[in-house]
Specification:
Oligomer: single chain
Order of helices and strands: EHEEHEEE
Bound molecules: fe (ii) ion
Distance between the termini: 39 Å
Number of helices: 2
Largest sheet: 3 strands, antiparallel
Structural class: alpha+beta
Number of strands: 6
Radius of gyration: 19 Å
Strand order of the largest sheet: 1-3-2
Length: 155
């Protein structure tokens, strides 16, 4: 897969010392959830002033997240595998409720909420589709991260 599409999200990092540190802080804080990030550009550089001194550097970044489309056969195989792994994880962690995929799931990156009752009709997901049954190559419609970046909303 050499051709990628990218979703672009915005981040702001801050540092008391340097602009570069502000960038590094933004990237390192988001590293866990944005493992598919591929590039960044600096959109803004600001400083916060306190008592006529530079209190913080603030750097606004645009982050490019690779949106990878996998082959259909591959994706169905992976879907089975990852659904199995998800179940195993939930048992192993001593989590109380089993993962059913019903209900709502929140994107940890941008806050988008997937509601299984509503589905994601814009992207061909019918209402009533449990989260676990979403295709493996389904990505957050807002920011483009994959399903692993979603967490169940306990109600
Ligand atoms: Fe998102």
């Amino acid at each position: 897969m050499s051709e990628h599409s990218y979703r672009v999200i915005e981040l702001v990092g801050s540092s008391k010392t340097t602009i570069e540190d502000a960038v590094k802080n933004a990237l390192s804080k988001s590293a866990d959830s944005l493992h598919n990030s591929r590039w960044f550009e600096v959109a803004q550089i600001r400083g916060q002033i306190e008592a006529a001194e530079i209190a913080y550097w603030q750097v606004g970044l645009r982050l490019g997240l690779a949106v990878e489309r996998v082959q259909k056969e591959e994706s169905s195989g992976k879907a089975v595998l990852s659904a199995g792994m998800a179940r195993k994880n939930s048992e192993g962690s001593g989590s109380t409720a089993p993962l059913t995929g019903r209900g709502k799931y929140r994107c940890k990156v941008c806050g988008y909420i997937y509601d299984s009752e509503k589905g994601d009709p814009d992207n061909g997901i019918k209402p009533g589709t449990p989260f676990q049954d979403l295709p493996e190559d389904w990505v957050c419609p807002e920011c483009g991260v994959n399903k692993e970046q979603f967490e169940e909303i306990k109600e």
